[in-house]
Each structure stands twice: as structure tokens, then as C-alpha cells.
Amino acid sequence: RVPRLSATLSTTDTGFSVVDDRSVSTTFQITAPVGQPVACALEARDEEHGTVGWRVVQYPASEEHSRAFSETIPTLSLATTGFVNACWVP
User: Fold this and answer.
1) What does the pLDDT look like over 5-16, one tens digit per residue?
2) What is the DSSP string of 5-61?
3) Distance, C-alpha 13 to centroid of its chain
4) Is the whole model's pTM more than 0.85, yes or no?
5) For labeling, which of 5, 24, 40, 79 is most exposed (least CB within 10 Å)?
6) 50-55, long-range: CB < 8 A, 24+ apart
């Protein structure tokens, strides 16, 4: 039997900024169940929508329902966007 969480997990991308041709910074908000750790896959894409960077980040459990984060995604070439691909409770 799979345990059910009492609250849903959602993310909102709030912005990004191209740092240089090897990294992009992304900002986002996570709304998650209180007391549960969260992991997120962050993605950077180029102007042809190809993936040029990928990073998985993990955050410890918190008493806050909503939290804001800023992370840098290393890239293989110049990115034109950075965003949250998916988040989950590990």
C-alpha cells in the first residue's frame, strides 16, 4: 500500500537569468507538505529547445508550506532558459 500525502506538491517558476555560456540561474517556489523533504530536477535549454544542462537538488523537510529558492544549473553551452522540470517527495 502506497502512503498518501495530505497535501499536494507544486512548483512555480519565478524567473531565470543567463549567467554566462556555462550556467543559468533559476528562481522558483515550492509548495510542499510540511515535514517532508523535496527533490527537484532543474533543466536548462538552448534556443532550439535542446537540453544543455540538468541538475537534481534536494531540500530537507521544513515547517514552511511554501518556500522560494534560487539555484544555478551548469550548462554545456549557452542556455536561453532555466526551469523546474519536476519535483517530488523522495
Assistant:
1) 445 899 999 999
2) PSS--EEEEEEEEEEETTEEEEEEEEE--TT--EEEEEEEE-TTS-EEEEEEEEE--
3) 8
4) yes
5) 5
6) 52/76, 52/77, 52/78, 52/79, 53/23, 53/24, 53/79, 53/82, 54/85
